[in-house]
Specification:
- The protein has helices at about 25-30, 45-50, 100, 110-125, 140-155, 175-190, 230-235, 280-295, 335-350; strands at about 10-15, 20, 40, 55, 60-65, 70, 75-80, 80-85, 90, 100-105, 130-135, 160-165, 195, 200-205, 205-210, 215, 220-225, 225-230, 245-250, 260, 265-270, 310-315, 320-325, 330.
- With about 350 residues, the chain is of the alpha/beta class.
- The longest helix is centred in the first third of the chain and has 18 residues, at about 110-125.
- The protein starts with 11 loop residues before the first strand and ends with a helix.
Length: about 350
Amino acid sequence: MGLAPPPETQIVVVSPDRHTPYSGMLPGFVSGHYAFGDCHIDLDRLCHDARVYFHNAAALAIDPQRNIVVLDDGASLPYDVLSIDIGSTPSVDGVPGALEHATRVKPVSGFLRVWDEILDEAARAGRAPRIAVVGGGAGGVELALALHYRLARCCPSAPARVHVLTDTATILSGHAPRVVRIVERILAERGIAVHTHSRVVRIEPGQLHTGNGTVVAADHFIWATGAGAPSWIAASGIQIGGGGFIAVNAFLQSVSHPGIFAAGDIASMGGHRIPKSGVYAVRQGPPLATNLRHALGAEPFAPYVPQRTTLALISTGNQYAVASYGRIALEGAWVWRWKDYIDRRFIRRYAV
């Protein structure tokens, strides 16, 4: 939109981080296969190149009656059209001790700071710490495998002890049984313990408690469960859907405030159960851009139609990956190379 904005339009991008990560490459970065610049987009440089103003701050509130966004640096930005695409953060509601003792994978910048500390700690001690990853979806499993792989190379004489906990019957809920079996086999080969039917009910220093009585001892707890929305979204008065996310129509437009749009994890489209996945968020980009232009009087509306089946490429830490597409399951180093090609091609689109 920035390269050809509608006449007399000023576009402002607001983000608390100058460097925004591409989540598809995060496990590869944790594994050590990518450098920071390989998987992060420099928003300041990108906005400058696209003739868009970049405001480095975080949103704290929205006043949809006065069309103002309040930022944490004290600024209040007026808007005619607002697009909210802030993603989500793993929810820790109702779990005592989770906020104090666990590290959420989002925002990614916060997680990466802790990851650097974990690596430094392991290098100084000469042994890998014990880590529990809460969340058995693709994100949690990929992260557990990546953490294990990197720590095994950091401390080869003292292998990492990693646990994965999920409250579902299996890991990778929603994927085909063959995909689940392949990934379960890989986890077992690495010595990563999987705890199913294990809803976390409390975290204390050094240990985690589940509803079935299991106690897992760990030095670090990584929280990678289902997505949650920030409380200021609901407090703004914008109509929300399930999970506290912004309720939108087929045009990714707020059902209560036509001048507000939302896409990605933060949006909830009535009548559709859209997974909180980057694959869907990326596909929403083109219709979102078109509809923002429409709101400014430049183009007709374009509906977003969620794809029925998506391809998931699940990395396993060691430049090996598993492909999941409907009932199809494939694995191998060639799947990693395929994923690597797709991811690098995506990030190159935003290189300056």
